[in-house]
Protein backbone atom coordinates (compact mmCIF):
# COMPACT_ATOMS: atom_id res chain seq x y z
CA UNK A 1 0.00 0.00 0.00
CA UNK A 2 1.09 3.54 -0.64
CA UNK A 3 1.12 5.68 2.46
CA UNK A 4 0.14 9.30 2.17
CA UNK A 5 -1.24 12.02 4.37
CA UNK A 6 -4.88 12.38 3.39
CA UNK A 7 -6.45 13.84 6.47
CA UNK A 8 -3.38 14.86 8.43
CA UNK A 9 -1.45 12.09 10.16
CA UNK A 10 0.63 14.10 12.63
CA UNK A 11 -0.23 16.46 15.44
CA UNK A 12 2.01 19.03 13.76
CA UNK A 13 -0.48 19.31 10.90
CA UNK A 14 -2.97 21.00 13.18
CA UNK A 15 -0.26 23.16 14.68
CA UNK A 16 0.33 24.30 11.13
CA UNK A 17 -3.37 24.75 10.47
CA UNK A 18 -3.52 28.09 12.28
CA UNK A 19 0.12 28.94 12.76
CA UNK A 20 1.90 27.76 9.60
CA UNK A 21 2.61 31.36 8.75
CA UNK A 22 4.38 31.98 12.03
CA UNK A 23 7.78 31.75 10.37
CA UNK A 24 6.97 34.87 8.36
CA UNK A 25 8.26 37.92 10.20
CA UNK A 26 5.84 40.12 8.26
CA UNK A 27 2.86 38.32 9.80
CA UNK A 28 2.92 39.19 13.50
CA UNK A 29 -0.77 39.63 14.23
CA UNK A 30 -2.97 36.85 15.51
CA UNK A 31 -5.79 38.71 13.78
CA UNK A 32 -4.04 38.11 10.43
CA UNK A 33 -4.33 34.37 10.95
CA UNK A 34 -8.01 34.65 11.80
CA UNK A 35 -8.72 36.72 8.69
CA UNK A 36 -7.11 34.43 6.09
CA UNK A 37 -5.53 30.96 6.22
CA UNK A 38 -2.95 31.65 3.52
CA UNK A 39 -3.57 28.51 1.47
CA UNK A 40 -3.06 24.88 2.46
CA UNK A 41 -0.93 23.65 5.34
CA UNK A 42 2.64 22.98 4.12
CA UNK A 43 2.57 19.86 6.27
CA UNK A 44 -0.11 18.28 4.08
CA UNK A 45 1.60 15.89 1.66
CA UNK A 46 0.12 17.47 -1.46
CA UNK A 47 2.61 15.82 -3.82
CA UNK A 48 1.51 12.30 -2.94
CA UNK A 49 -2.14 13.27 -2.92
CA UNK A 50 -1.75 14.85 -6.37
CA UNK A 51 -0.12 11.65 -7.63
CA UNK A 52 -3.08 9.67 -6.31
CA UNK A 53 -5.57 12.02 -7.98
CA UNK A 54 -3.68 11.62 -11.28
CA UNK A 55 -4.47 7.88 -11.18
CA UNK A 56 -8.16 8.54 -10.67
CA UNK A 57 -10.77 9.28 -13.38
CA UNK A 58 -12.24 12.65 -12.46
CA UNK A 59 -13.47 15.96 -13.83
CA UNK A 60 -12.67 19.38 -12.43
CA UNK A 61 -13.26 23.05 -13.01
CA UNK A 62 -14.04 26.40 -11.41
CA UNK A 63 -17.29 28.19 -10.67
CA UNK A 64 -17.27 31.95 -10.17
CA UNK A 65 -20.38 32.83 -8.21
CA UNK A 66 -22.03 35.89 -6.75
CA UNK A 67 -18.95 36.99 -4.81
CA UNK A 68 -16.64 36.84 -7.81
CA UNK A 69 -14.38 34.22 -6.17
CA UNK A 70 -13.40 31.32 -8.48
CA UNK A 71 -14.16 28.15 -6.54
CA UNK A 72 -12.53 24.88 -7.57
CA UNK A 73 -14.50 21.64 -7.70
CA UNK A 74 -13.72 18.04 -8.59
CA UNK A 75 -16.19 15.32 -9.57
CA UNK A 76 -15.53 11.62 -8.93
CA UNK A 77 -17.99 9.13 -10.38
CA UNK A 78 -19.54 6.23 -8.55
CA UNK A 79 -17.75 3.01 -9.33
CA UNK A 80 -15.98 -0.14 -8.19
CA UNK A 81 -12.82 1.31 -6.69
CA UNK A 82 -10.64 -1.26 -4.93
CA UNK A 83 -9.72 0.35 -1.64
CA UNK A 84 -7.10 -0.69 0.90
CA UNK A 85 -7.28 1.10 4.22
CA UNK A 86 -5.72 0.77 7.63
CA UNK A 87 -5.88 3.06 10.65
CA UNK A 88 -3.15 3.05 13.27
CA UNK A 89 -3.82 5.05 16.42
CA UNK A 90 -0.22 4.63 17.57
CA UNK A 91 0.94 4.87 21.14
CA UNK A 92 -0.07 8.48 21.63
CA UNK A 93 -1.72 11.46 19.93
CA UNK A 94 1.56 12.36 18.18
CA UNK A 95 1.69 9.21 16.06
CA UNK A 96 -1.72 8.87 14.47
CA UNK A 97 -1.37 7.39 11.01
CA UNK A 98 -3.40 5.85 8.26
CA UNK A 99 -2.47 3.74 5.25
CA UNK A 100 -4.66 4.23 2.22
CA UNK A 101 -4.43 3.15 -1.39
CA UNK A 102 -6.85 2.30 -4.17
CA UNK A 103 -6.93 0.68 -7.59
CA UNK A 104 -9.11 1.54 -10.57
CA UNK A 105 -9.93 -1.78 -12.29
CA UNK A 106 -9.14 -2.24 -15.97
CA UNK A 107 -12.13 -1.30 -18.09
CA UNK A 108 -13.56 0.83 -15.29
CA UNK A 109 -17.03 2.18 -15.99
CA UNK A 110 -18.85 4.73 -13.91
CA UNK A 111 -22.10 3.60 -12.31
CA UNK A 112 -25.32 5.60 -12.46
CA UNK A 113 -25.23 7.47 -9.14
CA UNK A 114 -27.69 6.73 -6.36
CA UNK A 115 -27.15 10.33 -5.26
CA UNK A 116 -24.52 13.06 -5.07
CA UNK A 117 -22.39 13.94 -2.05
CA UNK A 118 -20.66 17.32 -1.74
CA UNK A 119 -17.56 17.07 0.49
CA UNK A 120 -16.23 20.11 2.36
CA UNK A 121 -12.80 20.11 4.02
CA UNK A 122 -11.38 21.75 7.12
CA UNK A 123 -9.34 24.93 7.58
CA UNK A 124 -6.05 24.88 5.64
CA UNK A 125 -6.89 21.59 3.97
CA UNK A 126 -8.42 21.13 0.51
CA UNK A 127 -10.96 18.91 -1.21
CA UNK A 128 -8.38 16.32 -2.24
CA UNK A 129 -7.40 15.80 1.40
CA UNK A 130 -10.72 13.97 1.79
CA UNK A 131 -9.83 11.39 -0.86
CA UNK A 132 -10.38 8.34 1.41
CA UNK A 133 -13.92 9.52 2.16
CA UNK A 134 -14.48 10.45 -1.49
CA UNK A 135 -13.67 6.96 -2.71
CA UNK A 136 -15.51 5.26 0.15
CA UNK A 137 -18.68 7.10 -0.83
CA UNK A 138 -18.05 6.66 -4.57
CA UNK A 139 -17.64 2.92 -4.08
CA UNK A 140 -20.98 2.94 -2.23
CA UNK A 141 -22.65 4.32 -5.34
CA UNK A 142 -22.50 8.09 -4.90
CA UNK A 143 -21.15 10.66 -7.29
CA UNK A 144 -18.79 12.78 -5.20
CA UNK A 145 -18.09 16.48 -5.57
CA UNK A 146 -15.20 17.93 -3.58
CA UNK A 147 -14.91 21.70 -3.25
CA UNK A 148 -11.87 23.76 -2.32
CA UNK A 149 -13.30 26.46 -0.09
CA UNK A 150 -12.31 30.05 -0.84
CA UNK A 151 -8.73 30.84 0.26
CA UNK A 152 -7.85 27.15 0.01
CA UNK A 153 -6.36 24.82 -2.57
CA UNK A 154 -7.09 25.77 -6.17
CA UNK A 155 -9.80 28.29 -5.31
CA UNK A 156 -9.42 32.05 -5.35
CA UNK A 157 -9.16 34.46 -2.46
CA UNK A 158 -11.93 36.38 -0.77
CA UNK A 159 -12.99 37.50 2.70
CA UNK A 160 -13.32 34.49 5.00
CA UNK A 161 -16.82 33.96 6.36
CA UNK A 162 -16.42 31.11 8.86
CA UNK A 163 -19.00 29.25 6.82
CA UNK A 164 -21.32 32.17 6.04
CA UNK A 165 -19.70 33.26 2.77
CA UNK A 166 -18.31 29.82 2.00
CA UNK A 167 -21.82 28.34 2.11
CA UNK A 168 -22.91 30.86 -0.55
CA UNK A 169 -20.00 29.63 -2.69
CA UNK A 170 -21.21 26.06 -2.17
CA UNK A 171 -24.71 27.02 -3.31
CA UNK A 172 -23.26 28.63 -6.44
CA UNK A 173 -21.16 25.54 -7.25
CA UNK A 174 -24.17 23.25 -6.77
CA UNK A 175 -26.31 25.42 -9.06
CA UNK A 176 -23.55 25.44 -11.70
CA UNK A 177 -23.05 21.67 -11.52
CA UNK A 178 -26.78 21.10 -11.82
CA UNK A 179 -26.73 23.06 -15.06
CA UNK A 180 -23.83 20.87 -16.21
CA UNK A 181 -25.73 17.69 -15.34
CA UNK A 182 -23.24 16.69 -12.64
CA UNK A 183 -25.73 16.49 -9.76
CA UNK A 184 -27.57 13.19 -9.96
CA UNK A 185 -30.14 11.84 -7.51
CA UNK A 186 -30.59 13.01 -3.92
CA UNK A 187 -28.13 15.64 -2.70
CA UNK A 188 -26.11 15.12 0.48
CA UNK A 189 -23.57 17.36 2.24
CA UNK A 190 -20.55 16.06 4.17
CA UNK A 191 -18.17 18.34 6.05
CA UNK A 192 -15.26 18.19 8.48
CA UNK A 193 -14.58 20.95 11.05
CA UNK A 194 -14.70 24.30 9.19
CA UNK A 195 -16.30 22.40 6.31
CA UNK A 196 -18.87 20.90 8.67
CA UNK A 197 -19.98 24.37 9.78
CA UNK A 198 -20.14 25.37 6.12
CA UNK A 199 -22.26 22.30 5.32
CA UNK A 200 -24.73 23.11 8.09
CA UNK A 201 -24.99 26.74 7.00
CA UNK A 202 -25.48 25.63 3.38
CA UNK A 203 -28.18 23.15 4.39
CA UNK A 204 -30.07 25.93 6.14
CA UNK A 205 -30.05 27.93 2.90
CA UNK A 206 -30.87 25.04 0.55
CA UNK A 207 -33.93 23.81 2.43
CA UNK A 208 -35.49 20.65 1.00
CA UNK A 209 -32.94 20.52 -1.81
CA UNK A 210 -30.68 18.60 0.60
CA UNK A 211 -31.63 15.09 1.74
CA UNK A 212 -29.03 14.62 4.48
CA UNK A 213 -26.00 16.18 6.13
CA UNK A 214 -23.03 14.59 7.89
CA UNK A 215 -21.11 17.13 10.00
CA UNK A 216 -17.96 16.06 11.83
CA UNK A 217 -16.58 18.16 14.70
CA UNK A 218 -18.20 21.46 13.74
CA UNK A 219 -17.97 24.56 15.90
CA UNK A 220 -21.33 25.79 17.18
CA UNK A 221 -20.31 29.45 17.27
CA UNK A 222 -17.31 30.90 15.42
CA UNK A 223 -16.16 33.26 18.16
CA UNK A 224 -16.44 30.59 20.84
CA UNK A 225 -14.63 28.12 18.58
CA UNK A 226 -11.69 30.49 18.14
CA UNK A 227 -11.51 31.13 21.89
CA UNK A 228 -11.41 27.40 22.53
CA UNK A 229 -9.01 26.54 19.74
CA UNK A 230 -6.23 29.15 19.92
CA UNK A 231 -5.21 28.55 23.58
CA UNK A 232 -5.20 24.82 22.90
CA UNK A 233 -3.02 25.26 19.82
CA UNK A 234 -0.58 27.44 21.75
CA UNK A 235 -0.34 24.84 24.52
CA UNK A 236 0.59 21.94 22.23
CA UNK A 237 3.88 20.12 22.71
CA UNK A 238 4.39 18.36 19.37
CA UNK A 239 7.05 15.74 18.78
CA UNK A 240 10.05 16.47 16.58
CA UNK A 241 12.27 19.52 16.32
CA UNK A 242 10.23 21.14 13.55
CA UNK A 243 6.98 21.05 15.47
CA UNK A 244 8.65 22.08 18.72
CA UNK A 245 10.33 25.05 17.06
CA UNK A 246 7.05 26.20 15.54
CA UNK A 247 5.28 25.82 18.88
CA UNK A 248 7.90 27.84 20.78
CA UNK A 249 7.82 30.60 18.16
CA UNK A 250 4.02 30.69 18.18
CA UNK A 251 3.87 31.03 21.95
CA UNK A 252 6.49 33.80 21.86
CA UNK A 253 4.83 35.67 18.97
CA UNK A 254 1.16 35.22 19.77
CA UNK A 255 0.86 34.09 23.36
CA UNK A 256 0.77 37.60 24.79
CA UNK A 257 -1.81 38.94 22.35
CA UNK A 258 -5.32 39.56 23.67
CA UNK A 259 -7.56 37.00 22.04
CA UNK A 260 -10.81 38.96 22.37
CA UNK A 261 -9.14 41.98 20.77
CA UNK A 262 -7.81 39.83 17.92
CA UNK A 263 -11.28 38.37 17.29
CA UNK A 264 -12.84 41.84 17.32
CA UNK A 265 -10.19 43.17 14.93
CA UNK A 266 -10.60 40.21 12.58
CA UNK A 267 -14.36 40.72 12.64
CA UNK A 268 -14.01 44.38 11.70
CA UNK A 269 -11.67 43.53 8.84
CA UNK A 270 -14.03 40.81 7.61
CA UNK A 271 -17.15 42.92 8.24
CA UNK A 272 -18.45 39.94 10.19
CA UNK A 273 -19.40 39.60 13.85
CA UNK A 274 -17.73 36.29 14.64
CA UNK A 275 -19.62 35.97 17.92
CA UNK A 276 -22.86 35.94 15.95
CA UNK A 277 -21.91 33.23 13.46
CA UNK A 278 -24.32 30.74 15.00
CA UNK A 279 -24.19 27.37 13.26
CA UNK A 280 -26.94 25.91 15.42
CA UNK A 281 -29.34 28.64 14.32
CA UNK A 282 -28.58 27.81 10.69
CA UNK A 283 -29.12 24.10 11.31
CA UNK A 284 -32.52 24.86 12.80
CA UNK A 285 -33.62 26.17 9.39
CA UNK A 286 -32.53 23.03 7.52
CA UNK A 287 -35.08 20.45 6.50
CA UNK A 288 -32.46 17.75 5.87
CA UNK A 289 -31.73 14.93 8.29
CA UNK A 290 -28.51 15.93 10.07
CA UNK A 291 -25.96 13.53 11.59
CA UNK A 292 -23.47 15.20 13.92
CA UNK A 293 -20.27 13.35 14.86
CA UNK A 294 -17.84 14.49 17.54
CA UNK A 295 -15.06 12.93 19.59
CA UNK A 296 -15.22 13.34 23.35
CA UNK A 297 -11.43 13.85 23.47
CA UNK A 298 -11.53 16.79 21.04
CA UNK A 299 -9.64 19.75 22.51
CA UNK A 300 -9.38 21.67 19.25
CA UNK A 301 -13.14 22.18 18.95
CA UNK A 302 -14.31 20.76 22.31
CA UNK A 303 -17.16 18.33 22.47
CA UNK A 304 -19.37 20.99 24.08
CA UNK A 305 -19.81 22.43 20.59
CA UNK A 306 -21.22 19.17 19.29
CA UNK A 307 -23.50 18.76 22.28
CA UNK A 308 -24.83 22.28 21.81
CA UNK A 309 -25.48 21.70 18.11
CA UNK A 310 -27.31 18.51 19.02
CA UNK A 311 -29.98 20.66 20.64
CA UNK A 312 -30.47 22.89 17.62
CA UNK A 313 -33.25 21.07 15.73
CA UNK A 314 -35.45 17.98 16.06
CA UNK A 315 -34.07 16.43 12.86
CA UNK A 316 -30.53 16.36 14.29
CA UNK A 317 -29.01 13.07 15.41
CA UNK A 318 -25.82 13.16 17.46
CA UNK A 319 -23.18 10.47 17.91
CA UNK A 320 -20.17 10.93 20.16
CA UNK A 321 -17.08 8.73 19.89
CA UNK A 322 -15.18 7.95 23.05
CA UNK A 323 -11.45 8.56 22.92
CA UNK A 324 -11.42 10.29 19.52
CA UNK A 325 -10.14 13.82 19.01
CA UNK A 326 -10.19 16.46 16.29
CA UNK A 327 -7.35 14.79 14.43
CA UNK A 328 -8.35 11.15 14.70
CA UNK A 329 -12.12 11.31 14.16
CA UNK A 330 -12.11 11.99 10.37
CA UNK A 331 -9.59 9.16 9.95
CA UNK A 332 -11.90 6.54 11.45
CA UNK A 333 -13.42 5.21 8.26
CA UNK A 334 -13.29 1.79 9.92
CA UNK A 335 -15.80 2.93 12.57
CA UNK A 336 -17.77 5.54 10.63
CA UNK A 337 -17.78 4.48 6.97
CA UNK A 338 -20.74 2.11 7.11
CA UNK A 339 -22.67 4.46 9.41
CA UNK A 340 -22.30 7.39 7.02
CA UNK A 341 -23.24 5.31 3.97
CA UNK A 342 -26.31 3.94 5.76
CA UNK A 343 -27.34 7.44 6.90
CA UNK A 344 -27.26 8.72 3.34
CA UNK A 345 -29.03 5.67 1.97
CA UNK A 346 -32.15 6.27 4.08
CA UNK A 347 -32.75 10.02 4.23
CA UNK A 348 -36.30 10.94 5.18
CA UNK A 349 -36.74 14.67 5.41
CA UNK A 350 -38.64 15.89 8.44
CA UNK A 351 -37.93 15.68 12.15
CA UNK A 352 -40.23 12.76 12.87
CA UNK A 353 -38.86 10.47 10.15
CA UNK A 354 -35.08 10.94 10.19
CA UNK A 355 -34.52 7.76 12.19
CA UNK A 356 -31.35 6.87 14.07
CA UNK A 357 -27.80 6.28 12.83
CA UNK A 358 -26.67 2.68 12.58
CA UNK A 359 -24.01 1.99 15.19
CA UNK A 360 -21.49 -0.75 14.30
CA UNK A 361 -21.89 -4.09 16.01
CA UNK A 362 -18.12 -4.30 16.51
CA UNK A 363 -16.83 -1.42 18.58
CA UNK A 364 -20.28 -0.03 19.28
CA UNK A 365 -19.35 0.34 22.95
CA UNK A 366 -17.20 3.30 21.91
CA UNK A 367 -20.25 5.30 20.85
CA UNK A 368 -22.62 7.41 22.87
CA UNK A 369 -25.78 8.64 21.22
CA UNK A 370 -27.98 11.54 22.15
CA UNK A 371 -31.51 10.15 21.64
CA UNK A 372 -33.36 13.43 21.83
CA UNK A 373 -32.45 16.91 20.56
CA UNK A 374 -33.73 18.23 23.87
CA UNK A 375 -31.63 16.01 26.15
CA UNK A 376 -28.89 17.49 28.34
CA UNK A 377 -26.08 15.38 26.94
CA UNK A 378 -25.17 12.09 25.27
CA UNK A 379 -26.26 8.90 26.90
CA UNK A 380 -24.82 5.51 26.39
Describe the protein.
This protein is of the alpha/beta class. The protein has one domain: Rossmann fold. 34% of the residues lie in helices and 18% in strands. The chain is built from 12 helices and 11 strands. Strands 1-2-6-5-7-8-9-10-11 form a 9-stranded mixed beta sheet, with helices on both faces. Strand 5, helix 4 and strand 6 form a beta-alpha-beta unit. Helix 1 packs parallel to helix 8 and helix 5 crosses helix 6. The N terminus and C terminus are likely disordered.
Short description, anyone?
This protein is 34% helix and 18% strand. With 380 residues, the protein is of the alpha/beta class.
Please describe the structure with a list of short key phrases separated by commas or semicolons.
380 residues, alpha/beta, Rossmann fold, nine-stranded mixed sheet, two-stranded antiparallel sheet, 12 helices, disordered N terminus, disordered C terminus
Largest β-sheet summary: 9 strands, mixed
What is the helix/strand order? HHHEEEEEHEHEHEHHHHEHEHE
Q: Termini distance?
A: 37 Å
Structural class: alpha/beta
What is the name of the CATH superfamily?
A: Alpha/Beta hydrolase fold, catalytic domain
Number of discrete domains: 1
Output the radius of gyration.
19 Å
Low-confidence stretches: 1-26, 372-380
CATH topology value: Rossmann fold
Helix share bin: 25-40%
**What is the chains' assembly state?**
single chain
Tally of helical runs: 12
Mean pLDDT: 84
Strand order of the largest sheet: 1-2-6-5-7-8-9-10-11
**Number of strand segments:** 11
Please identify, by name, the CATH architecture: 3-Layer(aba) Sandwich
Strand content: 15-25%
Amino acid sequence: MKRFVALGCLLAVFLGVWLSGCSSISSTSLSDHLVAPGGVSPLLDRERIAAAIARLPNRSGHTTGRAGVPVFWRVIDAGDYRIDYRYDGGDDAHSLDMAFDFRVPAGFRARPPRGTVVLLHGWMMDGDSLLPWSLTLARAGYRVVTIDLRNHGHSGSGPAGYGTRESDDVLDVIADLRRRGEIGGALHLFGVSYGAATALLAAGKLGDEVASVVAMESFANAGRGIRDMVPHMLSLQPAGWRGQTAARYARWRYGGQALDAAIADAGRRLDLDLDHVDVGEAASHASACILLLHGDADRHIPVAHGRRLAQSAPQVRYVELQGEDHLSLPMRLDLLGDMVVDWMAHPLAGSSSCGSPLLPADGGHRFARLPSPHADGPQG
